[in-house]
Amino acid sequence: xxxxxxxxxxxxxxxxxxxxxxxxxxxxxxxxxxxxxxxxxxxxxxxxxxxxxxxxxxxxxxxxxxxxxxxxxxxxxxxxxxxxxxxxxxxxxxxxxxxxxxxxxxxxxxxxxxxxxxxxxxxxxxxxxxxxxxxxxxxxxxxxxxxxxxxxxxxxxxxxxxxxxxxxxxxxxxxxxxxxxxxxxxxxxxxxxxxxxxxxxxxxxxxxxxxxxxxxxxxxxxxxxxxxxxxxxxxxxxxxxxxxxxxxxxxxxxxxxxxxxxxxxxxxxxxxxxxxxxxxxxxxxxxxxxxxxxxxxxxxxxxxxxxxxxxxxxxxxxxxxxxxxxxxxxxxxxxxxxxxxxxxxxxxxxxxxxxxxxxxxxxxxxxxxxxxxxxxxxxxxxxxxxxxxxxxxxxxxxxxxxxxxxxxxxxxxxxxxxxxxxxxxxxxxxxxxxxxxxxxxxxxxxxxxxxxxxxxxxxxxxxxxxxxxxxxxxxxxxxxxxxxxxxxxxxxxxxxxxxx
Amino acid sequence: xxxxxxxxxxxxxxxxxxxxxxxxxxxxxxxxxxxxxxxxxxxxxxxxxxxxxxxxxxxxxxxxxxxxxxxxxxxxxxxxxxxxxxxxxxxxxxxxxxxxxxxxxxxxxxxxxxxxxxxxxxxxxxxxxxxxxxxxxxxxxxxxxxxxxxxxxxxxxxxxxxxxxxxxx
Lengths: 500, 169
Prior knowledge:
The structure holds 2 protein chains of 2 kinds.
Chain A: H1 2-12, H2 15-19, H3 27-45, H4 49-65, H5 68-82, E1 89-95, E2 99-101, E3 107-117, E4 127-135, H6 143-158, E5 164-170, E6 174-182, H7 186-194, H8 204-218, E7 223-231, H9 239-251, E8 254-261, H10 267-277, E9 281-284, H11 290-302, E10 304-315, E11 319-328, E12 332-333, E13 336-337, E14 340-347, E15 352-360, E16 366-379, E17 384-398, H12 409-432, H13 436-452, H14 456-472, H15 477-488
Parallel strand pairs in A: 2-17, 4-5, 4-7, 7-8, 8-9
Antiparallel strand pairs in A: 1-3, 3-15, 5-6, 10-14, 10-16, 11-12, 11-15, 13-14, 16-17
Chain B: E1 2-3, E2 10-11, H1 27-33, E3 52-53, E4 64-69, E5 74-79, E6 84-87, E7 99-100, E8 114-121, E9 124-129, E10 136-138, E11 141-142, E12 149-151, E13 156-159, E14 162-168
Parallel strand pairs in B: 3-5, 6-7
Antiparallel strand pairs in B: 1-2, 4-5, 4-14, 6-8, 8-9, 9-12, 10-11, 10-13, 13-14
């Protein structure tokens, strides 16, 4: 079977090693490495047969790695040969108590689940197919639009050569500023962005529609297909169409991330669009921060390791779920939908962390099953679909509380932030029910908790809004957004705070 | 059921934070976990009649470290059976030091939550600054953070503006 032999040989040659680059090298790095090697080898190869052979292999490696499609195919073959057995995703479960006392009443147990890429798998970036959909309505005039242009210029410089970018602007209609393409002439593309002028109203659907068409033209399941929508205004009358567009995007594996700037945009609509399509939503409180929001978003997109991540739980007898939350990369309440609890994407450099609150009925001493967790997700980097990881979790019951156990600090710290997030949720629902006084008191307490963990700016906003609420009966649109989005992004990472 | 001390809402046992008002509910339980940290707080009229808060040592051989907190006059004793963490208790960040200086005005005097640590090697004691904001001084000499420094009877430790007098028995 000579053919088989050849094929295996081809797979075994490590093209990355031949060029001396890492598996996560960008196209530029590969080109640079190739040019350096070629220059050196070319002149000497004529005299030396070994060098000639080496030169041939460098050529071969470059031909494959320099072509995004061939490179992906090559990576997949390699992955199939080397890494097919091991799980691509790591799962670590930590309980608040390893042992519970036997009580005659129901008790609480917290489980923290940390999801990270398996350390033995080398990360390679996926191709990015990105569309920026930018609001250019009259209200964006001046500094705001200027900052958005600067942020877009930044992204044009930030993206790799092989990334595909399209840019759409919208007011009450949409224009395609840049049709989806590789960034070959960055100067010309920047000039196109500079020429954007503001005028007209805000119809988000128009922009979404045009952006999705751009993405769909080039999209493939091997790419990260994403739309970033930035707006400063309420959309009029097309909310339902926007949500349908988000559903369509989700079916086509296109994520939509929404960013609201200023105070007049509809946060519920933008949150829902992001939720339905598997993107994120953010509040940009100052035009000066647009660039950092764009950069962080694009950074997380090019670092996608797994996506369509979801989990299901099967509980042991007498165990029920009170609530479950995402606590990293941001805080969100998780709700069961079709196919389980959906987590979106796993980034290569930020773990996804879940916190489960379980209630357990009285038990006899001994080991008891808490739950079985099954995590499912696609790992496009390895060309794997629906990778599954199962974990059985048990908890011990002891006749009496034998030794006082310390709760792992990670869990205490995550729960502390979660407690603040929950107070925010309660404040908003108090307000919806018209319980202004209760909401105002809650905001004050929340401000104290925020001060305790060193979130000074957010604490100030909460205190300010508590006062406003007591006086006028409602929150300012700006304060409301600050508190909603601020509590959501209470970072899990330790933060240098206060005098400590 | 356990009851939230601040809003009175009831929760199942082992709940760590009150859903209603965000209060940390395990604070009491966690204080009890560490016998070294429970020294009752006794205030003095004048520093002549020291009230000693002591924890019984397990063996006769164990050395005892006594720390006199100058400004509050509180004297604490630790049997040297494990390292001693000094700082301020803060449940929200899960900091539970063995010697909590909150009641002695630690916050005002610039004591960090994780300020310093005393360790033992054989019969020698060492003190180490844990990267505190205001630093640790022994007999007026500022310690390099995370570098253990020998500690002897009669030494004066300064944490921010808080002064402690050491005696080892």
